[in-house]
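Lay summary

Proteins are chains of building blocks that fold into shapes. Our project writes down both the chain and a compact code for its shape. Here are two examples, one after the other.
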Amino acid sequence: MLKPTNATPSMQKYENIKVVALDADDTLWVNEPIFQQTQEKLRELLSRYIDPKQLDGRLYETERNNLRLFGYGVKGFVLSMIETAVQLSDGKITGKEVRQIVDMGKAMLEHPVDLLDGVKEAVETLAQYYDLMVITKGDLFDQENKIARSGLADYFKRVEIVSEKDEATYQEVFSRNGIRLEEVLMVGNSLKSDVLPICKLGGKAIHIPFHTTWEHEKVEAHHANGYDYDEIRNLRQLIRLLNPGKSPALKDQELLIEGRGFRLRRFLTDDASSLAHHADNANIAVRLQDRFPHPYTEADARQFIEYARNAEMETVFAIEVDGEAAGAVGIMFQQDVYSQSGELGYWLGEEYWGRGIVSEAVKAMVQHAFSDLGLRRVYARIFSNNVASKRVLEKAGFQFEGMARQAVVKNEKVLDVFHYAILNPEMPNR
């Protein structure tokens, strides 16, 4: 069945995957907006001949009729633009204007290859654990050129540029390359070309929607119903989903949330001074484990920032208030049979207590853990005398699960530990 965007796909579903096949245009790099920008230029060029509103429908009709002759890609698009211009202008278009259309096409072919969010990171990471291949349609020379200019070519073991992406094509490609259907995962932005053909064959596919789609690639929702595929927001999330090397903290997104009066972002090396300023506080240290030092120096801050920026089994964000790092919130990933759980930790500079910042930061981290990291459960352990954290967790939806009696000794004081947890509502108990 179709999973909504906020659902959390299951890692176990992809345990047998050995090959990750990626679409190219609007999956690895920007493509459709370049066509739309060029179409807008054509609309302006023909404005003296026609009402600009006439162009879009007529051009798409011409493109669709020409696909069997020209195929997909810029060159076929340019020929269709010229044909449409001649038709709509009743043959009045000048040689100079035709030349302008040709120049538009050349500009498209020479346009920089703009990688989409998370692509380089995902490809670099996944190539260490899977055989990567590209399956894309379009003009052979143009697609080969874009792959070469993308800087990603060395990560792909195979590149397949095809004239169509349907069930027969996929079967032929996989058979010719000795790839078993059950061991390949197809990932792309087009339901019509990248997802549904694979689903119809009984294979696995992941949809990464792009913000704009060519008319020819659009699929009505009811055509996708009944097919089992997952949907993610960007290619970076594929690292989380496939969980290569069992290190789900591989390079998080730079900015997690813009909150009211704060934001969660990755730590920067120049955060050391502000971090040390806010962390060097006995009222904070008394609530945390002894790995949080007191006094807290800039050297401690630099060491922590280096750790946070490179951690593989923990994901940590700075809580930025008034333009500086004033705290931290993170999740420590568990291993073995506990691999779908994460332990939450957080602290904030005392001058910002009472503003509701920590509660909102915790909510954001829980959402991140469920939606992006694929965790089933997030839990927190707090000292029994930490009433403020009890309120924070309950406000964020955590439930009290029990108490470990006399579990810690902090500053020579014996304390109980309260256990709180929240479960991912999108992951059933099975």
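And here is the second example, written the same way.
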Amino acid sequence: MDIANELYLQQSRRSFLAQGALGIGGIALNSLLLGDEAERTAVGGLGDLPHFKPRAKRVIYLFQSGGPAQMDLFDYKPRLAGKFGKEVPKSVYPDARKTTMTSGQKSFPVAPSILKFARHGQSGAWLSEALKHMPKVVDDVCLIKSMYTEAINHDPAATLFQTGSVIPGRPSMGAWMSYGLGSENANLPSFVALTSNGRAKMGQPLYDRLWGAGFLPGRFQGVKFRGQGNPILDLYNPAGVSRAQRRRMLNALGQLNREQEERFNDPVISTRIAQYELAFRMQMSVPELIDVKSEPKRILDLYGPDATKVGRYAYNCLLARRLAERGVRFIQLYHRGWDAHGNAPKQVKTQCQDTDQATTALLLDLKQRGMLEDTLVVWGGEFGRTIYCQGKLTKQNYGRDHHPNCFTYWLAGGGVRGGMSYGETDDYSVNVADKPVHVHDLQATILHQMGINHELLTYRHQGRDYRLTDVHGEVVKELLS
């Protein structure tokens, strides 16, 4: 499917008659056979997807922007305490893998985590003391300690995780899902993006292209819910304009757009018509959706004191659950503030104060509603942090630079094996020692749980068939239950 092919089909009378004769009958037959299940087909998606029975119906991706320090959270290295202040051997960490922010340092001393670790759950997983709530759900989580990437700077690294390429302009993972599987709710987008800032009041820019459609038709891009004021601009009609008036205006505008579409045969115009109609339906569905204060007190208490504060991480986690139960297929939550170049111990604790309770609450909430088994929750950032200190090292303080060679992600629900730790790093938490998992492997696994063969979900653009995982990537089957 591409724009040139769409134009050809629109201009071909024979194709129109053939598709019309078969399509109307097919829709009617599909409705009779599938009943309520026909709604998803009516809202879009490719006819040959899913490729096989999915284990998950939806994805909630909790992207921790900035790069959480794996050795301060999940990757416990007790032996490093005896190496405090000693130089990290160049055989372990060569100069070629250091950023310009630290490559000029004269010394690269080992900075062991000062945070205490303990085992939790039946799995005996090691967790940092900064994660005070996660022990409640650790047996539902699959820790991947052997993630790695090629990108060492924030924007290309985040772009790789979100779009499968360090080069901007490719479709995001949510856009691929929306394109392939369509929507389960005609009154809400199939792909929603949410952003929040940590109390650290710092963070990397989050560009709209991270949830964009790239070269896919624009209707598949993520709809961003704003973190202040109305979640979507112009959601409510202005004073003096009734819903009936708005409907008449859209009817007239739709007629003008259809005339333009017939004249120019431009698929972008049909996308615009569809988006206007979705926006009209969202005027009815979104106000109820964002009314989180209607939740029972026990649920609000579960997510914590920020649960009703628009734009905070806890609010977005609760909103993610409400979006998921209403049929939104891909929910992308970005939380900034993990870029701890200095004062890392304090910043890690502050970030966990913002995120740990709400993340745990999301898993507990999904589980008690019977939704965790078919909701895949993903947690992680664009890379990890260095074991050597950036800046001055003291017993109570250190900084950490970017580190792409190894870091931790975790998955929960959606057919993933809970209570397991996959992969290992070396003694310095510098390189993967066992079972490496590349960014494309993670993406292939996520698509697989949604019933998609990552090698078959493609789109022809500029003479080439593109896919999310580029030209490689393997499903990590050991993670799956």
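What can we say about the second shape? The two ends are 34 Å apart (CA to CA).
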